[in-house]
Design goal:
By secondary structure, the protein is an alpha/beta fold. The chain has a single domain (27-296), classed as Ribonuclease Z/Hydroxyacylglutathione hydrolase-like (Metallo-beta-lactamase, Chain A, 4-Layer Sandwich). Helices cover 31% and strands 25% of the residues. Strands 7-5-4-3-2-1-16-17 form an eight-stranded mixed sheet, covered by helices on one side. Strands 8-9-11-12-13-14-15 form a seven-stranded mixed sheet. A two-stranded parallel sheet has the order 6-10.
């Protein structure tokens, strides 16, 4: 009878070894657009096996996405980025912070009056997570992958909030009242660059701010565009698309009363010959790249 526990132990050990070996980094960048309904959550695993999450969606669906794309024994996310403090981007982060060890939390200083945002502030404070405010011209590296911040511009944001903002690297803020402002305009816009592969992650930074972005930075040709604001008709301008020339545009969208993605948005993407992937139709969308070529999964 003593052989049975021994054999079960061997079997369990073999399973753990198999999971560990198959979950080791493959030296490629994995960009996963989670299927979280009408909201945004983007999980990124770098070739160096570092993890970044951009937004958390409107509910706990993001946990399923993380569970599918991170090994069960990995409970650390190196950086979480909240593009802007609206519930369809932030609510899922409440569960993420409960379940995972988050090293850094990146966001704009602006806050909202949503109860979920206040809970998020409290959880970040209780867990002692380091908060970083980044602006146009700042960047950070995760291993070999560079993230350039294209928006918001510090002076513009200070004027909108009516507050002077501390310089990057000093005291960081989360929750300056932005009552009466369009929170979408504050979205952190990130240009991900890895080798010859470029992606633009836009939050909900739509046509209202794109002329300012185009005026202040040299926009690259990109492989992947995350369509701003879930495919709204004001999500992107034709001029912005002409500058970016995206090969693939991903629309993170679910059932909604606004008709997202709109016919206007889809027609514009067709006119610039960009392929389209949609989470409401395609489910979770994964792009894998070695920095030279990329594939859609």
């Amino acid at each position: 009878m003593a052989r049975i526990p021994f054999l079960l132990g061997l079997l369990f050990g073999a399973i753990l070894l198999f999971v560990y070996v198959t979950s080791r980094p493959d030296g490629k960048l994995h960009l996963v657009f989670c299927d979280v309904g009408q909201g945004d959550a983007i999980f990124i695993k770098t070739p160096d096996n570092l993890d970044l999450l951009v937004d958390g969606g409107p509910d706990e669906s993001v946990l399923h996405c993380l569970g599918e794309n991170m090994p069960f024994y990995d409970r650390t996310i190196d950086i979480v980025v909240l593009t802007h403090p609206e519930n369809d981007h932030l609510k899922g982060l409440l569960s993420v912070i409960d379940r995972y060890n988050v090293k850094y939390f990146v966001s704009v200083p602006a806050g909202s009056n949503y109860e979920d945002f206040r809970q998020l502030q409290k959880k970040i404070e209780i867990k002692g997570i380091q908060v970083k405010n980044l602006y146009l011209g700042d960047y950070f590296m995760l291993g070999q992958v560079r993230f350039n911040v294209l928006w918001p511009e510090r002076k513009w944001l200070a004027e909108q909030l009516g507050k002077s903002l501390p310089p990057t690297g000093s005291s960081n803020i989360l929750g300056i009242s932005a009552e009466g402002e369009n929170l979408n305009d504050f979205s952190v816009v990130l240009h991900l660059s890895y080798g010859g592969f470029d992606t633009l992650l836009t939050g909900d930074g739509d046509s209202r701010i794109q002329s300012d972005i185009a005026r202040t930075v040299q926009l690259p040709d990109i492989e992947i565009l995350k369509f701003p604001h879930h495919g709204s008709k004001t999500g992107v301008t034709r001029e912005f698309l002409d500058r970016l020339k995206p090969e693939l545009t991903v629309i993170s969208v679910g059932k909604n009363p606004w008709g997202h993605p709109t016919r206007e948005a889809l027609d514009m993407l067709e006119s610039v010959k960009s392929r389209v992937a949609r989470t409401d139709r395609d489910g979770e969308i994964e792009i894998v790249t070695d920095g030279t070529s990329w594939s859609l999964h």
